[in-house]
Amino acid sequence: MLQQKIQIGKSGIEVPYLGLGTWAIGGGSWWGDNDDRLSVQTIQRAIELGIVWIDTAPIYGLYHSEEVVGEAVRNCRDKIILSTKCGLEWNHETPVFHKNVDGTRVYRDLSRKNIIDEVDHSLRNLGTDYIDVLYTHWQSPDHKLYPIEETMDALMTLKRQGKIRAVGASNVTAEDIREYSRYGQLDVIQEKYSIATRRIEKDLMPVCREYGISIQAYSPLEQGLLTGKFTMETVFPEGDVRNNNPSFRPERRKKILNVLDGWKKYTEKYQCSNANLVIAFTANLIDSLHILAGARKPEQIEDNAGALAVDLEESDIEQMKKDIEILNE
């Protein structure tokens, strides 16, 4: 499966379905301190294993993730597909407050000027002269303030200039997708998706099919819950992002862990980890789905890469689909 590639929308860019997400590599209070040396080794190991779509964002560690990624890919830029994001800003205020990140007030700004300025900053952080996929990270709740027509005009300008190769959008509605597509070529959306969080199947998948837009799923392991490494007794420290995730609440966590317990026969059959199994199965839930899995240690990306070798039998896929219906109740 490693050599099989999927096209990103209509961009002509093809990659294996599994990519590396670098949110955690940015560190900060959500993720704790990182060893940047290990982060660089993790990214380089991913590339060696054929995981060549590396995704980052300025907001991850307030530029830190982009800087670490830039260091890691300095000597292998031509071997990877690199994506980053725009639209979140903390160097100036806007009318749209996003959230507080480690004491820094972050705002949304999808204006033409800010997008173009942000991309130039990201290019410097990443040490490259082009970005393969640029996502708008969060959408404006008021399209009169930042019209999608203006946002897309900036993105298409950057594409014509050769600074980006494809346009993506994250955290969108179906109407957002339609409007982006009205003003240019939207190739991919990036949304949270896992066997425990399947909202996009009803809300976004139909319109993506209509326009030939790819989907890239983040948090496919539901922030680690689907690895099977946590139990009902696992407690996370105050401020940990998982404390706000509905899947970690006792009643829902129990359902999820019961499903994983029933899948031990599959991890034995395919000689793989829970993470391998879940990633491989998730890739079969939506046609041509791209999946981002995070890692910040080489052994984590080596485990994730094992999913590429898991070739599930159709009968097992169908049974597993039935098993997860309990999570929709």
UniProtKB/TrEMBL annotation:
Residues 18-322 form the NADP-dependent oxidoreductase domain. Transmembrane segments: none annotated. Keywords: Oxidoreductase. One of its GO terms (molecular function) is oxidoreductase activity. Pfam families: Aldo_ket_red (PF00248). GO terms for cellular component: cytosol. This is Aldo/keto reductase. It comes from Candidatus Anaerostipes avistercoris.
